[in-house]
Amino acid sequence: MTVNVNPLSEQDLSLTASAQEKMQELAGQVEEPIEGVRVFATPGGCSGVNFGMTFTDQLTEDDNVREYEGFKLIVDSGTLQYLRGVEIDFVGDGGEARFVFNNLQPMGSGCSTCGSNTGGGCG
User: Fold this and answer.
1) Domain residues of the chain, as ranges?
2) How far apart are CA 42 and CA 48, in angstroms?
3) Residues near 121 by Cβ (< 8 Å), separated by ≥ 6?
4) Which of 56, 60, 78, 110 could be cross-linked to 38 through a Cys-Cys bond (beta carbons 3.0 to 4.6 Å apart)?
5) Could you tell me which residue, 18 or 46, shows the higher pLDDT?
6) Where do the DSSP E strands lie in the chain?
7) Which CATH class is domain 6-102?
């Protein structure tokens, strides 16, 4: 069954060259068939939303997709509203290597003490 998906543009969500290389490398290591790398949002955290990535073997009509060499980047419309204009980068090496979401817009629904030096935090 073919699912009609929406194109994901560079203006919607972009990947740096290092993020593309790392995602291509990771996708190549997966043994079972996948559709691509899904970026998702979950409630929580200081900004009100946490972001993550996982491999997926399914596409829905609510998905926005951009093809890169060796993998597809997949974001559902609900998550995309938080990520418009964001750049995903891959930084570091060894134990400190991670994907970073640059240019995230503040959501405003987090707590006021997060990141302060007075302790606190979300709770």
Assistant:
1) 6-102
2) 9
3) 46, 111, 113, 114
4) 56
5) 18
6) 6-7, 13-15, 36-43, 49-56, 63-68, 71-76, 86-91, 98-102
7) mainly beta
